[in-house]
Amino acid sequence: MFAPAFRYFDVFDTIRDLGVFRDLPKVRAWRAALASRPSVREAVVPDYGDRLLRFLERHDGALLKRAA
Predict the structure, then answer these.
(1) Cβ distance 28 to 21 under 8 Å?
(2) Quick one: angle between helices 2-15 and 48-58, nearest 10?
(3) Do the domain assignments include residue 40?
(4) Would you say residue 22 lies in a domain?
(5) Tens-digit pLDDT profile for residues 15-32
(6) What angle is formed at CA 39 by the lines to CA 32 and CA 36, rounded to 5 degrees?
(7) Is residue 54 part of a domain?
(8) Average pLDDT in the 54-65 region?
(9) Is residue 20 included in any domain, yes or no?
(10) DSSP assignment, residue 16?
(11) The pLDDT of residue 49
């Protein structure tokens, strides 16, 4: 349940470092452990990050505006 939300942040962090997990070392470790699981890695297409970025561009994503 949390892996998809963390996956969003993987992409968001490429746009702008939001620092959401900066002071949460246990959450960062858990996030990394989830991301390394085959079931999580294989749950999305290889170009998932690019697709999410294109979605944000098409829908005038606020995060993209803040990154500029």
Answers:
(1) yes
(2) 70
(3) yes
(4) no
(5) 888 899 999 999 999 999
(6) 20
(7) yes
(8) 86
(9) no
(10) -
(11) 93
